[in-house]
Amino acid sequence: MVGVVVPWDQVLDVLQESHRKGAGSAIVISAGFAERGVDDRRDLQEELGAFARTSGMRISGPNCLGLANVKHDIWATASSRGAEGLTGPIGLVCQSGATASGPFLVRAVENGIGFSYIISTGNEADLDFTDFARYLLDDPDTRVIAGFVEGFKEATSFSKWP
């Protein structure tokens, strides 16, 4: 797994090189894609998704803060805030990284609420809210899935759950 924090116009090159070196997944923290509302940036984000599909490399982001496996104290995130000692049964999936690492985490810490995972999905060029929620469904330590969803690209993928 690689963490990608480079200017937007270098992200695809870094992903391609990382894949050549054997990386199977990436967290793209870099911003400057579809959220800018500019056609060529939206197109580049679509290229990231196409690269993920053709290469098999799974991508979280771009424009996300990463993810935390709180139960095993693994923080692959750009956030400086942690939740030390607050493991629990809640898997949190947020499209907004600032919301996950900001108000949700702060309130959880203040109230002694523990997480199994904290996941920021960002712009979802490849992996999306539904992918992470499905993973959490099978996690024996996650009993509640909390989500902050701004929108679904394909609502049918969420509605087709078993």
Layout of strands and helices, then pairs:
Elements: E1 2-4, H1 11-20, E2 25-28, H2 39-55, E3 58-60, E4 66-69, E5 74-77, E6 87-94, H3 97-111, E7 115-120, H4 129-137, E8 144-148, H5 155-159
Parallel strand pairs: 1-2, 2-3, 6-7, 6-8
Antiparallel strand pairs: 4-5, 4-7
Helix pairs in contact: 1-2
Share in β-strands: 15-25%
- How many beta strands in the DSSP annotation? 8
Structural class: alpha/beta
Low-confidence stretches: none
Provide a descriptive summary of the structure in words:
- With 162 residues, this protein is an alpha/beta fold.
- It folds into 2 domains: 2-60, Rossmann fold, CATH 3.40.50.720; 66-159, Rossmann fold (3-Layer(aba) Sandwich).
- The chain is built from 5 helices and 8 strands.
- The chain has helices at residues 11-20, 39-55, 97-111, 129-137, 155-159, and strands spanning 2-4, 25-28, 58-60, 66-69, 74-77, 87-94, 115-120, 144-148.
- It has a 5-stranded mixed β-sheet with strand order 5-4-7-6-8, sandwiched between helices. The protein has a 3-stranded parallel β-sheet with strand order 1-2-3, covered by helices on one side.
- Helix 2 (39-55) links the parallel strand 2 and strand 3.
- The longest helix has 17 residues, at 39-55.
- The chain is globular.
- The model has no long low-confidence stretch (mean pLDDT 89).
